[in-house]
Specification:
There is one protein chain. The protein has 2 domains: 65 residues, no CATH class; 104 residues, Helix Hairpins (Orthogonal Bundle). Helix 3 packs across helix 4 and helix 3 packs across helix 5. The protein is mostly helical. The radius of gyration is 21 Å and the shape is flat. Helices cover 61% and strands 0% of the residues. It contains 6 helices and no strands.
């Protein structure tokens, strides 16, 4: 279901992008510099789509197991559970947040909120500027968030033992703190410095 969701979100992104236009580094409106969408961008999008489709088709038809998990080739044994079961790489950050809370219900709620909080992020945007070019505090928080997501993804693939449990708990707190308080406060602070 995830590939179809990604395709749907990509189409939605292209519709919004072609309807309103992309942002420029200054965040100002630049209607003067626009060129017609067709044929310039239509052919460019079509070429990119064809290249990606041919790469995907080549990989799927000639080497379908290239990105598969080696555990899939182990014969099934009903008497032995695999020592470490983990989700796909794109769910590992949420899985690390799920594992960081010892309570089952609390872990499931944290997992749910870790995804739902991303949908509230546009409403938490408090800055008057759309771009991060002239916002050094937000740039720093962005790179901190990126590093934190990489750490959570790495922790999600590790076994449940110390020190991975503690690192996952600290990274989970930082994840929620960044998205709910630090980034909106940085936007308000940078608004005052304008």
């Amino acid at each position: 279901i995830l590939p179809f969701l990604i395709i749907g979100m990509s189409i939605l992104h292209l519709i919004f992008l072609h309807e309103t236009g992309s942002n420029n580094p200054t965040g100002l409106n630049s209607n003067i510099d626009k060129i017609p969408f067709h044929p310039y961008f239509s052919y460019k999008d079509l070429l990119g789509f064809m290249i990606m489709l041919s790469l995907l088709s080549t990989m799927a038809l000639f080497s379908p197991n290239l990105l598969g998990d080696p555990e899939n080739f182990t014969p099934a044994n009903p008497l032995m559970t695999p020592p470490h079961i983990k989700p796909e790489w794109y769910f590992l950050f949420a899985y690390a947040i799920l594992r960081s809370i010892p309570n089952k219900l609390g872990g499931v709620l944290a997992l749910l909120f870790s995804i739902l909080i991303l949908f509230t992020f546009p409403m938490l945007h408090t800055s008057k500027q759309r771009t991060m070019t002239f916002r050094p505090i937000t740039q720093t928080l962005f790179w901190l968030m990126t590093a934190n997501l990489i750490i959570l993804t790495w922790i999600g693939g590790q076994p449940v033992e110390e020190p991975f449990i503690m690192i996952g708990q600290i990274s989970s707190v930082i994840y929620f703190m960044l998205l709910t308080t630090l980034i909106p406060l940085a936007g308000m602070a940078e608004n005052k410095s304008l």
